[in-house]
Amino acid sequence: MSTCEDELREPPSAQDNYPTPAREEGEQPTTFASLGISPPICQALASCRLRTPTPVQQAVIPAGLQGLDLCVQAKSGTGKTIAFGVLALSKVQPNIGTPQCLILCHTRELAQQSTDVIRTLCTRLGNKRGEHVLDAGAVLGGRPLTECFQVLTRPCQILCGTAGRVEQLIIKGKLPVARFRTVIIDEADFLLGDSMLLSVVAVVDSLPEEKQVMAFSATWTQGITIVFSIPLRDVSRRMHRVSEEEDEICYHHHQPPCWGEPCSLGGGNFC
Q1: Which stretches within 49-107 are classed as H helix?
Q2: What is the DSSP code (8-state) at residue 241?
Q3: Which residues share a beta bridge with 7?
Q4: Stated pTM of the model
Q5: Is 93 in a helix, a strand, or coil?
Q6: Which of 67, 134, 146, 188 could form a disulfide with 215 if both were Cys (CB 3.0 to 4.6 A apart)?
Q7: CB under 8 Å to 55, separation ≥6 — which residues?
Q8: φ, ψ (nearest 5 deg) of residue 164
Q9: Cα separation of 81 and 87, whole Å?
Q10: 244-250: long-range contacts at Cβ-Cβ below 8 A with a sequence spacing of 24 or more?
Q11: How far apart are CA 190 and CA 93, in angstroms?
């Protein structure tokens, strides 16, 4: 049986090969707490022996907590799953038992994996009576619809699912969408291919207008641009892009209707 650490920690080889930001002499190492994460979630991470955020997590989590629309472009093994898992947990309200954060995945296996990771953290967020404060569920394509209905009858703040099945549940009126305020698109370069793009667009467009959209991808695709054009119809909003360039974390922004050239920024600030 895998331990909490095994489920959450990225492959050591990937972590070891990833550049660590240089620190001034005497500067304290970055912690999850310093990123603005709540003490209970920091304690849940620490209980899984996760105490030092990766560079991608350092860049993504503070921006996500601010409510920015993000596209995170980074290689596998850099901590993206923990980054969006922490953001998902930070964005939902425990006293509301209906889904508030939606995580879209391109395969059943990936959706279940993300659910398991987040549920592992949820178990570490239990109250003094040992009850889970938060919970996550999975609705998967290729499985009986009755299984999905059962998931949706239980208190669940974070919902992971394949795009086609989520779209089907929304069309059938089985998935309430009014409470959704955060949408996370995992492995967006695969999910936003030709076969699933229309389902993702339909799902995102059916959710409340006031929502935060975050996409995590190894590469930049035209599909990501299309999906982000939905929540960004209001020209006062910007999509912020976090990407790896020459072993550094760089920030860019795009703003519709004109998708201009990326603006490279230093010092971890957004323009």
Answers
A1: 55-65, 80-91
A2: E
A3: none
A4: 0.80
A5: coil
A6: 188
A7: 18, 19, 20, 21, 78, 249
A8: -65, -40
A9: 10
A10: 244/56, 244/73, 244/74, 244/75, 244/78, 247/19, 248/19, 249/21, 249/55, 249/56, 249/58, 249/59
A11: 30
* Pairing of β 239-245 and β 248-254: antiparallel
What's the CA dihedral at 153, 156, 157, 162 to 10 degrees? -80
Q: b/e per residue, 15-40, with b = 16+ CB within 10 A?
A: eeebeeeeeeeeeeebebbebebeee
Q: What angle do CA 86, 199, 207 make, to 5 degrees?
A: 55
Judge whether 213 and 227 are in contact, CB under 8 Å: yes
**CA atoms within 13 A of residue 205's CA, in its CB half-sphere:** 12
* pLDDT per residue as tens digits for the range 46-63: 999 999 999 999 999 999
3-state helix, strand and coil shares in percent for the chain, rounded to the nearest 5: 35, 15, 45
Domains of the chain: 4-16+33-254 (3.40.50.300)
